[in-house]
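Why show two proteins at once? Because comparison is the fastest way to build intuition. When a single record is shown, students tend to memorize it. When two are placed side by side, the eye starts asking what differs. So, the first record is below.
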Amino acid sequence: MATTADFRNGLCIKHNNDLWQIVEFQHVKPGKGPAFVRTKLKNLTNGRRLDNTFTAGVKIDVVRIENRKHQFLYADGDTYHFMNTDNYEQIFIDKGLINAPQFLKEGENADILFHAEEEKILGCDLPASVVLEVTYTEPGIKGDTATNALKPSTVETGATVNVPLFINIGDKIKIDTRKGAYSERVKS
């Protein structure tokens, strides 16, 4: 058993008979009344977010979560197949557990969250950014770099991303997987 003094970002706890991850926390000591901890929690089973306040010193159940590197093999409908890079064991993950499945490219590595005691898959996180090649976009015109205008483009995974006007077919771009947005053009 731990207490609120052990809170840190990323800590997984059991709260209201469900698994939650602490996204953000703040210890508050008001001039009047007892101290408390204000938290933002993310549900690991359905992704819901919750603001919650704990009284300082209250006991909490800490859950051990492990991140394991896996390599994406292929998608079969809504089922995604991954391989553990250490022992070559294959696992199958539902599309709903992946944070940005539209940016997964075959051979790409991802972190899969496991509930350590139950060996249950809780989710799959892609790297913060991925580099993909543009397969289709309207042609760019020389000199179209002064404005912040965007145009739609399709990348090699089939996802659509808005890019600046100067991006052409064959360019490699960096995409922020958390926002699903263009970051920068990658020079070859």
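Second record. Ask yourself what differs from the first in the token line.
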Amino acid sequence: MSIQFFLTYLSIVTIATITPGPSMLMAINHGVNHGLRKTFVSGLGNMIGNILMAIVSIIGLGALLIASGVIFNIIKWCGVAYLIYLGIMTFFASTSSKEEISEKPYKEKSTYRLFSEGFIIAIGNPKGILFFTALFPQFISTDSASISGFSFLIIPLAIVAITCYMLYAAVGTRISKLFAFATFRKTYNRIVGSIFIGTGIALAFSRK
């Protein structure tokens, strides 16, 4: 792959990744509630989920999943259900005052829970399969396809995914101090919860 082709690929992946969506919204939410160190765990889960979907697309299974309406819809509806679940949980989350928060802090999630949430958000959106299945053939030559060639696609994707995720998480940590105000926390929970639910509904009515 030439430098020009690689830079083009990197630009497309970066733009697609940094565009606000369910994963980036979760990064902000985790940044707000758990800080950068713990959010990195969910970022790793999200990155691995993206890598898995990319590998599936590279080896040709992506096209099969798209062609199979049943499997594609299973992935789609699992993603819909999970997004709506996250939305409801966020919408009705606690809105305690600062004093109450200090006595009863936000319930911290386990490392496994954080990792799995990041991973499920990544693989629960079938549009990722569509994106990678459409993207990779443009940058893979079947005559020279190799593990090293695939690495030039996968490694930058992994770096971009975790970097963008943590940038959004950093935004979350910046606004976390505002959560001393119960009104702000309540408004935030309602907005973020509604976006998760709305995204899930939008995904439910989306077509291939």
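One difference worth noting in the second protein: Residues 22-204 form one domain.
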